[in-house]
Amino acid sequence: MSSNSDNGRSRSRRRFIHATGIAALAGIAGCSGNGGSGGGDDTAESTATETESGGGGGSSGPVEVLHGWTGGDGARAAEALTAAFEEAHPDVGLDMNPIGGGGNQNLDAVVANRLQSNDPPGAFANWPGPNLLRYEGVLGSVDDVWEENNFEEVMVDEAIELHQQNGSYRAVPLGSHRLNCLFYNVSVVEDAGIDVESLNSPSALIDAFETVASETDAVPMTHAMGGTWTTTQLWAAVMLGVNGYESYMDFLAGDGSESDVRAAFETTAEMLENYISDDAASLNLTASNQNIINGNAAFIHQGNWAAGAYRNTEDFAYDEDWGFKTFPGTEGMYTLHFDSFLYPANNPTPEASKTWEAFVGSPEAQIAFNQYKGSIPTRTDVSMDAFGPYLQETAEDFADAEFRPPNLQHGLGVSSQKMTQLNEVISSEFTGPYNVDAATQGFLDAVSN
After folding, report:
1. Was domain 6-178+338-400 assigned CATH 3.40.190.10?
2. Tell me: the pLDDT tens digits for 361-417?
3. Based on the number of CB atoms within 10 Å of its own CB, is 212 exposed (0-12), middle (13-18) or buried (19 or more)?
């Protein structure tokens, strides 16, 4: 999964780090027991020191791990991860505690409540980068885990940068998802007579939607609107596809072009007004993705966790029943996302929690989990033999990508505070009717605060 050349990898790293560094400047209050109104670096470091020396309740009992993988692509991956840990560490108890809900929303709420109540779990799944700002003051250091396992030598460059806060590692990556994905049902697309590889822009994609609508009985694009995050995520893909990498990165940095943001909303509105199903408002991600599996829809935009669900479906084969296309207009890009496990300071099982963190970064864990989740390892030394052709191609795309822009919706592009504001704009102005003017201004205001 390493790059083809050191120069290319360094170039991508510089472009990515510059933007995420800017995005990380705007933080939000942490979820600490003192209400997040103080502590900062000193609180995190002093608590972490107590934890590492055996304070904070010792290591009795199993390590409690919170995560959000409860269905679709996630359940089988979580089960495989659990089984691999139990095989590798039969002497360490593990209490895997799944918290369902799309986009980590329920998981985030449970974690916040637990941290505010001074009742942290041993570890919890979440996202690195600017997303760590919401937990400033309550995360312990896992520098020793990174050093003892030589993670800096084997992890992709972006993982090294994004898992640090205030000079220390606070988490370990498990896998990398790609966000600029377009999946499709092969039979529906063939019935419509569409050459998917010719789709090189969002406008060409809209033309394909129109063809599906006129030539088949299928929904042109299935889209889950049971929550707002899917639409925010779609807008980000369209923004990249319509306006390109630099414009997207300027937007994340709070210096977005009004005309570019408006153009992305106009294109997204055209898609949603004309080409999604009538029941979209009641669909969650799993139900929406099932429309591809059942042949009820032609296309879906999602992260490549959608492919994890396809892989876990019998008699639904890549290139025969479902296909993949880089989201039109974003060729040469890999919109980056990480699944990681964060380490709370003063957790009740510090030693077992660090055993878990070390395992998360191991080849065994990354193979067990990612092959079913539809993601790829963050380690550069893992064989892709077990992953199947689609994820092997994904790893090649990662290595060859000219740009690896951070995702907007899942923690790497902006802080959780800004992300909340963006989703509120979608909820109030862009769920039908689609108010392009208000949504454009709302998005610009949110990232500039």
Report:
1. yes
2. 999 999 999 999 999 999 999 999 999 999 999 999 999 999 999 999 999 999 999
3. buried
